[in-house]
Amino acid sequence: MRKFWGIFLVLVLVVSMVAVGCGQKQEPAKEEQKAQEAPKEEAKQETTGDVVKVGWIGSLTGDQAVWGQCEFNTVKMLVEEINAQGGLLGKKLEAIGYDTRGDAMEAVNAVRRLTSQDKVVAIIGPNASGQAIPISTVLEEMKVPDIATVATNPKVTVVDGKTKPFNFRVCFIDPYQGAVAAGYAVDVLKFKKAAVLYDVADDYSQGLTEFFIKTFTEKGGEIVAKEAFKSGDTDFRPQLSKIKTANPDIIFMPYFFKEVALSANQARELGIKAVLMGGDGWPSEVLLEMARDAVNGSYFVNHVDFDDPAVQDFKNRYMKKYDRKVELNGYLAHDAFLMFVDAVKRANSFDPVAIRDALETTNIQGITGNIKIGKDTHNPEGKEAAIIKIVDGKYVFQQKYSPSK
Amino acid sequence: MIQFLQQMINGLSIGSVYALMAVGYSLVYSIMNFSNFAHGGIIMLGAYFGFFFLTLFNWPFAMAFLGAAICAAILAVLVERVAYKPLRMRNAPFLYFIISAMGASMFIENFVIATIGPTFKTYPTVFSREPFRLGPLFIGRLDTMMFVISAICLAALIYFIDFTKMGKAIQATAFNPRASALMGINTDLIIITVFAIGGFLAGIAGVLFGMKYTVYPQIGFITIKSFIAAVFGGLGSLPGAVIGSVILGVLETLISGYFSSQFRDLISFSLLIFILVFRPIGLMGKSTEEKA
């Protein structure tokens, strides 16, 4: 009988594992279900002479699943559209995506699978720096380029002054974003005292904190409190109570929307009236659902003005196909895909190294702005940030802003 | 002083969340002598039930709350029937129970990811977020409600265990299952009852947790803290679970508020190890005779 129970336990575990494998559905909606089942199905197909595979990695489960799912949906939609127009260089594209679950190790495994097993010609994603930084060794080993979408930490493309040959990105970087937030807080909003609450376990949050504090103090402001928490925490009141006694004008919250919503709600429950501010980890429909009142009147730095005429066509196409609003990551996944298509066309080849070489000289107009890749940084240079204010549950564009101005 | 009082209020609020969850661990441990790691999964399911009853069926809050607790109780019993009873019937080694508990926990989490989805669900606003004000102190309405509900549930549970026939049978079974069975106590029914009570409390904890924070498949993860609190207070002791939870909640808050949140887990877990080294049965742990 022990044998029977051994088999039973193994079965329970196997069912759980299978559930993980298939378990990437966001909502019961059919489109979403299709979106989540896609990676498994597509991975089964063999590469033929007429099909070229493009990889995508990101969070399909975990805290940032909303963003990852939007990114992958975007990539698949664009692949479908390009195939409908006859393909790229006469070949059909196929998108293959793997879930990183927001985990660095999973991201490395996913890239290894995409490059060695699926033989993709390029990878789009991931959506966070924590997963974009560690994948570079595999990319270099397999000689396949990657275009990160919303990975803003400088180390994604450059480490110790050396450019990572196969890593590119489509978004601006944290030093710039932190400086934009601090510059806007001092120069435009005229705030003098800031507190910072940040995620000590996250590269993104730490980077933004560092550059926000640097610029804020350089411009004559004072940091009256600096408190930390760890990813996964749900209660921020001990830190917020401390921040409250420091009486700041503004609290900078450089982390992602779930924690932003929880901490904003708790800040208001503690009677904190200070204006809240954050970076590109904020914009999500989930933030407004969870903390509509608490974040009212807050500001954040964004990659795109959601009302910009340039993004409306994409927004509408996405809404029509998936019957839901596009998240911030979708816009950047869109532009990363444009970068890839442009590089393939200019290289006139699907050779990953030729695509990499072409990516270095990218200069295109995306929906998030002009994308001119710096050869020594692999970052888009001169991209302006958009300042967004949350007003009555809506993201209201304020202005394009650059701290040097 | 005001900040200290505010931090104590914060700590009690966190402690009451831990307490509701920790009691479930203690209750099962007192009877089965193993920790039901699927408890976190039941809490998570309770949170989802409450959410769906409120949003899909538009039930009144009290009904949704009770419905979620009952559903969680039924599921907890189901987990016992599927994952533990067969092992119990075969006198399987202790390790099998732990593995089965972990398997059940993984299964529940992944089942929810696969069927409901991995993203967050936000409870509709049932109570105003406007806090009570006591001079310069701010006390959240939901925190107050959680504290009151936790206290009522725990008082009712202690009354049930100490003053009802079934409660005495539970105590007897905790003391010696074999002798209890020989004396005519239906131990299988006792186990069902204990899991149902644990599940009921888990459902309540889940709904409160969901309202206070948010609902997502990994919320069961927070139960690791309540498990630690239960060990801290003395596994198998209900007052121990409550006291351990409150101490842990307050301790964490004071460390975060007066030192740094980076030291929070380091110091609180160091203290836990310290307690366990010098008092392995935990703060309120009792000998087997006085369990439950």
Mean pLDDT of chain A: 86
CATH class of chain B: Mainly Alpha
Low-confidence stretches of chain A: 15-47
What fraction, in percent, of the residue positions of chain B are helical?
A: over 70%
Strand content of chain A: 15-25%
Can you summarize the main beta sheet of chain A? 7 strands, mixed
Helix content of chain A: 40-55%
CATH topology of chain B: ABC transporter involved in vitamin B12 uptake, BtuC
Tally the structural domains of chain B.
1
Order of SSEs of chain B: HHHHEEHHHHHHH
- Cα separation of the termini of chain B: 39 Å
Largest interface: A-B, 55 and 53 residues
Arrangement of strands in the largest sheet of chain B? 1-2
Alpha-beta classification of chain B:
mainly alpha
Question: Which architecture of chain B per CATH?
Answer: Orthogonal Bundle
Strand content of chain B: under 5%
Which assembly state applies to the chains in this document?
Answer: heterodimer
Strand order of the largest sheet of chain A: 9-8-10-11-12-15-16
Structure keywords:
heterodimer; A: 405 residues; alpha/beta; Rossmann fold; seven-stranded mixed sheet; five-stranded parallel sheet; 14 helices; 45% helix; B: 292 residues; mainly alpha; ABC transporter involved in vitamin B12 uptake, BtuC; two-stranded antiparallel ribbon; 73% helix; disordered C terminus
What report would you give on this structure?
The complex is a heterodimer of chains A (405) and B (292). Chain A has 405 residues and is an alpha/beta fold. Chain A has two domains: 51-172 and 307-374, Response regulator (Rossmann fold), CATH 3.40.50.2300; 175-302 and 387-401, Rossmann fold, CATH 3.40.50.2300. In chain A, 45% of the residues lie in helices and 19% in strands. In chain A, the strands form four sheets. A seven-stranded mixed β-sheet of chain A has the order 9-8-10-11-12-15-16, with helices on both faces. In chain A, helix 3 (65-84) runs parallel beside helix 13, helix 10 packs parallel to helix 11 and helix 13 crosses helix 14 (352-359). The longest helix of chain A has 21 residues, at 2-22. Chain A is globular and about 65 Å long. The N and C termini of chain A lie far apart (76 Å). With 292 residues, chain B is an all-alpha fold. Chain B has a single domain (1-121, 138-278), classed as ABC transporter involved in vitamin B12 uptake, BtuC (Orthogonal Bundle). In chain B, 73% of the residues lie in helices and 2% in strands. Chain B is built from eleven helices and two strands, in the order H-H-H-H-E-E-H-H-H-H-H-H-H. Chain B has a two-stranded antiparallel ribbon. In chain B, strand 1 (132-134) and strand 2 form a beta hairpin. The model of chain B is unreliable at 288-292 (pLDDT under 50). At the A-B interface, helix 1, helix 3, strand 9, helix 9 and helix 10 of A face helix 1, helix 3, helix 4 and helix 10 of B.
